């Protein structure tokens, strides 16, 4: 079977959508090697390549000079001309979009991660909201099947895009295999020393933006001796975060890390006392999965999709109540047996997101279309 994919996020995005794309292609090519996987990339990438992927994964770029200059138009429309010549069985849009003009004989799949731009319009510009809506609505209408990454996202697609439930299937995502590795004592020691990390710390991973709600963690550790390690890209919201840190003398308790290798990040997950993810809303929440594979206890938000990722043995808090967050943190810091129980039960739960299960679900979906 020859399957085509929108490769933009795979090659150019180093956060959620990029991680999803790279993880899925890796899982498919490793577990279903008889298929051929073609990634349509609008421009050459200096970040990611196919070095660690099987030969069944192929990159396709614009060939003509003019199309190389019109990258967005190539991805939106002109790529269809290339696709028509390559005898695909299925085209899969990995981030809520499919190109215009795909032939009817090609079956179409689109993954929709979330509809946060509809739920929280204040977080997006008017132009971005309109563009997102048009692209998502078109993809949902003309795809043969829509894949939601959580039941929460499925419910939102039904409500906001007016799509029949029968057209939507939930397939969860996993995480990079590096978070399942065991590391040597010297690797761990070198990483902790390199970033000058304390013995005990709370970990938070995710873009430093308002929706991710880092401020509530800072409020919960104010006037305590607890340390916080933050891994994530800074946005304009960071100014508010830094002003709070300075105003409350937290400079020596909060560590912002960047440019880590995946191995270093995995080690920092594994060494954390606990992982906290008090986001207001997500499509799924991959950092929760990464923490559970790392055998690190998780505190995350009530509502949204968080219980789908965190299972019944994580702790759920009101993400707008700093006192509740503080109490949950204190409970785990002061109760090693509780942490141990959460580590083991969480690790058992997260096995449902292993590569074999994910590959099986995708193979069944693709075969059902043919």
Brief summary of the model shown:
With 370 residues, this protein is α/β, with parallel strands linked by helices.
Walk me through the topology.
Blueprint: E1 2-6, H1 8-12, H2 16-31, E2 36-40, E3 57-60, H3 65-69, H4 71-84, E4 90-93, E5 107-112, H5 116-119, H6 126-142, E6 145-148, H7 151-161, E7 168-170, H8 185-194, E8 202-205, H9 214-221, E9 228-231, H10 237-247, E10 254-257, H11 262-271, E11 274-277, H12 286-293, E12 298-301, H13 306-310, E13 315-317, H14 322-333, H15 336-350, H16 355-369
Parallel strand pairs: 1-2, 1-4, 2-3, 4-5, 5-6, 6-7, 8-9, 8-11, 9-10, 11-12, 12-13
Helix pairs in contact: 2-16, 8-11, 9-14
Report on this model:
Helix 13 links the parallel strand 12 and strand 13 (315-317). The protein is globular. 45% of the residues lie in helices and 15% in strands. Strands 3-2-1-4-5-6-7 form a seven-stranded parallel β-sheet. The protein has a six-stranded parallel β-sheet with strand order 10-9-8-11-12-13, sandwiched between helices. It has helices at 8-12, 16-31, 65-69, 71-84, 116-119, 126-142, 151-161, 185-194, 214-221, 237-247, 262-271, 286-293, 306-310, 322-333, 336-350, 355-369, and strands at 2-6, 36-40, 57-60, 90-93, 107-112, 145-148, 168-170, 202-205, 228-231, 254-257, 274-277, 298-301, 315-317. It is of the alpha/beta class and 370 residues long. The model has no long low-confidence stretch (mean pLDDT 95).
| Number of contiguous helices | 16
Shape: globular
- What percent of residues adopt helix (DSSP H or I)? 40-55%
**What's the average pLDDT?**
95
Largest sheet: 7 strands, parallel
Question: What is the oligomer described by this structure?
Answer: single chain
């Amino acid at each position: 079977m020859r399957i085509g994919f929108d490769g933009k996020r795979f090659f150019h995005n180093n956060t959620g959508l990029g991680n999803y794309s790279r993880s899925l292609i890796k899982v498919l090519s490793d577990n279903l090697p008889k298929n051929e996987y073609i990634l349509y990339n609008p421009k050459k990438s200096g970040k990611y390549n196919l070095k660690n992927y099987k030969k069944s994964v192929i990159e396709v770029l614009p060939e003509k000079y003019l199309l190389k200059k019109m990258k967005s138009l190539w991805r939106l429309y002109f790529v269809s001309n290339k696709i028509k010549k390559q005898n695909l069985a299925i085209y899969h849009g990995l981030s809520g979009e499919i190109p215009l003009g795909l032939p009817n004989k090609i079956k179409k799949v689109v993954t929709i991660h979330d509809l946060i731009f509809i739920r929280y319009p204040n977080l997006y510009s008017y132009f971005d909201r309109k563009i997102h809506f048009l692209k998502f609505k078109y993809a949902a209408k003309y795809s043969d099947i829509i894949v939601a990454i959580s039941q929460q996202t499925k419910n939102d697609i039904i409500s906001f895009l007016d799509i029949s439930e029968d057209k939507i299937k939930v397939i969860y995502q996993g995480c990079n295999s590096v978070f399942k590795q065991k590391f040597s004592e010297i690797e761990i020691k070198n990483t902790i020393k390199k970033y000058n990390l304390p013995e005990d710390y709370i970990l938070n991973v995710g873009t430093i933006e308002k929706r991710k709600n880092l401020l509530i963690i800072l409020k919960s550790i104010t006037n305590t001796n607890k340390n916080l390690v933050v891994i994530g890209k800074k946005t304009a919201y960071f100014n508010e975060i830094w002003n709070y840190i300075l105003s409350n003398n937290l400079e020596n308790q909060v560590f912002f890390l960047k440019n880590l290798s995946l191995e270093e990040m995995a080690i920092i997950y594994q060494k954390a006392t606990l992982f906290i993810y008090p986001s207001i809303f997500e499509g799924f929440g991959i950092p929760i999965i990464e923490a559970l594979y790392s055998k690190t206890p998780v505190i995350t938000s009530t509502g949204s999709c968080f219980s789908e990722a965190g299972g019944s043995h994580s702790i759920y808090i009101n993400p707008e109540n700093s006192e509740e967050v503080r109490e949950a943190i204190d409970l785990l810091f002061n109760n090693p047996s509780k942490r141990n129980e959460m580590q083991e039960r969480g690790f058992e739960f997260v096995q449902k997101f292993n590569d074999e299960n994910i590959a099986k679900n995708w193979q069944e979906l693709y075969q059902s279309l043919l």
